[in-house]
Amino acid sequence: MEKTITGIVQCNEQVLNFYGENYKFTFMSTDGKIHSVKAIDGFIFGYTHERRRIAIYADDAKISVVGKGTLNTGSYIISTSNTYEQELGMYKAIIFSGGTINSLAMPYGYEQEHLDDGNILLRHKDDSKEYTFKINEQVCKVSIFSSSSTHLGIDGLKIKNDTMNFMIEFPEEQPLKKIYEHIAKIKELLAFMTFRRNVGFDEIRLFQYDERFENRLMAVAKVYIKEKEDFTKKSIWENIGFGDLGESMENMLELIFNSEDNKPSLVLGFIPQNDSNINIMTNMKLREICSALECELSFINDIKSEENENLKSLIGELKRIIKEHRKSSDALTQKTYDFIFSSMSHWSLSASDKIIELYHRYEQQMQLLNSESINLTDEMIEEFVKYRNKITHGSYQVLNYNVAITAHVLSGLVYCCLLKRIGVSDVRILEWCSTKILK
Predict the structure, then answer these.
(1) Distance (Å, whole) CA 1 – CA 74
(2) Between β-strands 138-153 and 53-57, what pairing exists: parallel, antiparallel or unpaired?
């Protein structure tokens, strides 16, 4: 956050002053009347005293001001210019700079040539990589590139090329209220790539096409977000980088951006919160791992295929018997039959049987992920599933070492399945099990 921010907001016919510090905004009036500051589309709009537009995130809050009223927020947005009016309501692109982005790609903005006279010739180099992905059939463009700058002063010439950028350009203008949804989606991508939740950016800027500058994309605003903790310090060599994913990143972005309620997509709630949380297993994390495995299994059609066909045959036979019973003199109520058929529609092979088969498909990878070198048996996987079922239904259980180790290794199985699903080769997945996955 900028050190302090002062400015004004319009409240009906009255102009109120505000003072902002550490994401706490105090609104002030001097007429002794009661004022109610209301958000529009989730934001309170105003101007700073430097004549920049400001949008303070307030959700649906109403701040009562009698002399003063306060709002603690997690974010606000300020326009980049104070020389001409900038509209904060819409944007066409977002650029995320620095922070965790720097640990997912190396900057190559310059190339050097050693000359015969001993001098070194530096040339600027375009190191951008471009991808596309769809959000609800609309094609979005992603660009990953480094920033460079030069400075000549009393300390000499300084050339910097140390910041990576991730830009999304949308086919249509986006409303300001969707910015946090987009930020959350990109953070989910970074969490997957780093195996950490405490990810973020040094800077987030919003861009719009500007006719005054040959209709080029120009920065119109900067987004400030209050982070709960410092970003992960995990090494770039232990992360799954943008270059590692390559074209598969397009599939991953589509999975993240097109997730729908009540439809399987991906479950990543088991990812550790921070660097110190990596080796801690909890009941909540264990449940998430099991849910993630069940999600991945829903995309694999050939697990226990013969038994699945036998189960379908059995269900068909039972439905025939139930329908006959419904016609008999001993018939039950229609609601009871509806409940029975609804229940049968969810019948499947046991989760432990399917996870065990899936584990053996990736057994070589699992051996590499098993840092404790404990022989993971089918019985241990069965115990893991039983433990999840017990704690899910409210039974008190003490998490033992074997169940915790099993859960940790199986979280790597989720990664293997998900990477396979987005198109990463078996060879790369096997390699990453030694160097990147669960690190």
Answers:
(1) 10
(2) unpaired
Task: Write out the two tokens for 201.
Answer: 């950016």
Contact 382, 356 (CB under 8 A): yes
Q: pLDDT tens across 366-406, in order?
A: 999 987 778 899 999 999 999 998 888 776 678 999 999 99
Task: Give strand pairing partners of 175.
Answer: 90
Q: Which helix (H) or strand (E) holds 341?
A: helix 334-344
DSSP annotation of 210 reads: E
> In a 3-state reduction of DSSP, which class is residue 234?
coil
Distance CA 376, CA 409 (A): 9
283-297 vs 401-421: helix axis angle to the nearest 10? 40
Q: Which residues contact 20 (CB under 8 A, 6 or more apart)?
A: 1, 4, 5, 6, 26, 56, 76
Decide the pairing of beta strands 75-79 and 68-72: unpaired
Residue 108: which of 138, 129, 131 has the closest Cα? Answer: 129
Residue 71, H or E segment: strand 68-72
> 């097109």: which residue's tokens?
258
For the stretch 205-259, pLDDT in tens is: 999 988 777 778 899 999 999 999 999 999 999 999 999 999 999 999 999 999 8
SS3 420: helix
Phi then psi dihedrals of residue 172, to 5 deg: -130, 155
Quick check: 402 and 380 in contact, CB under 8 A?
A: yes
Tell me which residue has tokens 């980088």.
241
Which residues have a Cβ under 8 Å from the Cβ of 288 and sit 6 or more positions away? 267, 269, 270
Reduce the DSSP state of residue 430 to 3 states and report it: helix
